[in-house]
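Reminder to self: tokens first, then the designed residues, so the page reads top to bottom the way the pipeline ran.
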């Protein structure tokens, strides 16, 4: 049976219950990912005809794989974070939250979230990294595909409360009704009037007149954990004499919910693809009889280099899950899942084998072909 058609009959629908008992799956868009990927990859044509290129030496195949992941620990373990948000008299904002930048744009994404929540230019916002001396407590840290989902929720809640406090300040000090106020890029304007107050002016008013800083401190717990999804399509060329595999094409389709920074999302998906393709094709720890690692250097432990990688085409499906802050969902660990099995399935399609164990090294491919006869 066509692997994509098989999946379309079995994949979850939006708002299905989690079959393993977790929180509701939310606005699951995995079928949309699969259908868009089939069209962009020309799946039907390739699956039916690509093996017509096979010859005595080379075999060609295509494969597909689906994956899903949660957004942190809600529904299984303690999941919360705390955030302090401060508006200074100079019009800048400090967001104290316990996260770390691991190279995937965490701080930049959260800065954009804070900018949206506060209606303030991103360059005026500082996001802290975790420091036990300075930052509020977080239950888990920068891990488990949780940061954008959980921390954005906390920042959104803090931003909403701080904006309410901004309006409350003008109501208390300037006697302006809150329903006449609205924010506009770091300022507050009054409907039907030319009056405009900068955030810095309001922070100063609050300190001078109310003896109180313009800040909030919140404890945040997410109340949902919608599933994020990915579908990968791969095309391979296998050398039947040497067992070497060339990944010719890779398409990664992700249900991202909402891409806070599309460029960073794409970069993360590309990096995740390289990580998992190495695991699928070449990376393996080999031990001797005494438990010593035999391939403890990069000359013997083979990672994929840039010349080994295919172009990674990416489609982002923005499902805008209503239970998420700004509709966001995770992409971190998800990016390093589906490309690997998609390549394995493509190799099996090319060779007519049933290989399932990482990595599919040349030795294992040749052995499988010999057993197949």
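Designed residues (373 positions):
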């Amino acid at each position: 049976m066509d692997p994509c058609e098989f999946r379309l009959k079995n994949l979850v629908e939006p708002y299905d219950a989690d079959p393993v008992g977790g929180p509701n799956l939310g606005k699951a868009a995995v079928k949309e990912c699969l259908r868009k990927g089939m069209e962009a990859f020309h799946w039907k044509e390739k699956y039916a005809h690509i093996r017509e290129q096979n010859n005595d030496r080379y075999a060609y195949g295509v494969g597909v794989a689906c994956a899903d992941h949660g957004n942190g620990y809600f529904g299984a373990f303690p999941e919360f974070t705390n955030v302090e948000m401060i508006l200074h008299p100079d019009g800048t904002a400090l967001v104290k939250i316990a996260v770390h930048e691991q190279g995937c744009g965490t701080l930049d994404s959260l800065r954009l979230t804070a900018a949206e929540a506060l209606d303030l230019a991103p360059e005026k916002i500082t996001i802290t990294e975790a420091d036990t001396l300075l930052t509020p407590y977080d239950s888990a840290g920068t891990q488990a595909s949780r940061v954008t989902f959980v921390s954005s929720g906390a920042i959104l809640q803090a931003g909403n409360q701080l904006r309410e406090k901004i309006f409350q300040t003008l109501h208390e000090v300037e006697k302006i009704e809150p329903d006449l106020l609205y924010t506009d890029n770091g300022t507050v304007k009054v409907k039907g009037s030319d009056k405009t107050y900068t955030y810095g002016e309001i922070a100063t008013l609050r300190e001078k007149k109310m003896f109180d800083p313009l800040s909030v401190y919140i404890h945040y717990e997410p109340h949902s954990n919608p599933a994020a999804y990915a579908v990968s399509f791969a095309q391979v060329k296998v050398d039947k004499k040497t067992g070497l595999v060339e990944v010719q094409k890779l398409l990664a389709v992700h249900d991202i919910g909402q891409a806070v920074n599309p460029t960073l999302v794409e970069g993360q998906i590309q990096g995740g693809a390289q990580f998992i393709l190495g695991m699928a094709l070449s990376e393996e720890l080999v031990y001797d009889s005494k438990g010593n690692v035999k391939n403890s250097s990069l000359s013997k432990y083979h990672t994929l280099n840039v010349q080994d990688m295919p172009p990674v085409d990416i489609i982002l499906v923005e499902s805008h899950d209503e239970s998420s802050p700004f509709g966001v969902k995770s992409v971190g660990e998800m990016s390093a899942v589906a490309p690997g099995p998609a390549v394995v399935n493509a190799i099996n399609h090319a060779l007519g084998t049933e290989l399932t164990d990482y990595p599919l090294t040349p030795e294992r491919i040749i052995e499988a072909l010999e057993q197949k006869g």
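The first helix runs from residue 3 to 10.
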